[in-house]
Amino acid sequence: MAIPKIASYDLPPVGSWPVARAPWSLDPSRAALLIHDMQTYFLRAYDPSTAPLRPAIEGIRTIREACRAAGVPVLFSAQPGEQSRDERGLLWDMWGPGIVEHPELQRVVEGLEPSEGDIMLPKRRYSAFHGTDLRERLIEMGRDQLIISGVYAHIGCLTTAVDGFMQGVKPFLVADAVADFSRADHEVALRQVARTCGVVTTVAEVVAAVSVP
Q1: Catalytic annotation, pick one of 37, 163, 176, 180
Q2: Is residue 43, in this structure, part of any structural domain at all?
Q3: Mean pLDDT of 86-109
Q4: Lowest CB count within 10 Å: 43, 52, 168, 196, which one?
Q5: pLDDT at 82
Q6: Is 93 tagged catalytic?
Q7: Mean pLDDT, residues 158-171
Q8: 92-125 b/e with 16+ CB inside 10 Å = b?
């Protein structure tokens, strides 16, 4: 049940996803950045020198720097390496023990490590909202927009976008700052967000939006 090796694929080009139904624009005074599950365990299935992982990491770095400069909060979600069978729940049936077998791989990938002031969210389900205080933290910070980056696009990133939407948080999924099992899965995530729960955006668009004086 372990995650198989993921073949390299080119990121979907701009314009390949539907125009978002939502009319929202990214506002740095209302947004927070989520770096979703960029842990060594989840990334070891990729070739780090090729797409989709290499441009996704580069894109996340670029967004993070722009967000920090603009005062946009940065949050990380990460699965704990230590979890009981009950804590892992049905994920055990679907994926096996997963990261529990490799707790040494729970760290965030080199080059994206959290810095002082960043917020870490331990999570045990697909959505970064489920069983965490993400919603409460966003409320405390006066934020109702969530920029979503990381892995895997059609699983945790998509579920987080849907969950956020249902809780009044406007999701902005960054097409070139996420990675997935395949180009087809990646496209599913972009299509579903654009059609049902949020805005699909790009690294360049996010940087431009948060850099406005």
Answers
A1: 37
A2: yes
A3: 91
A4: 168
A5: 86
A6: no
A7: 98
A8: beeeeebbbeeeeebebbeebeeeeebbebebbb
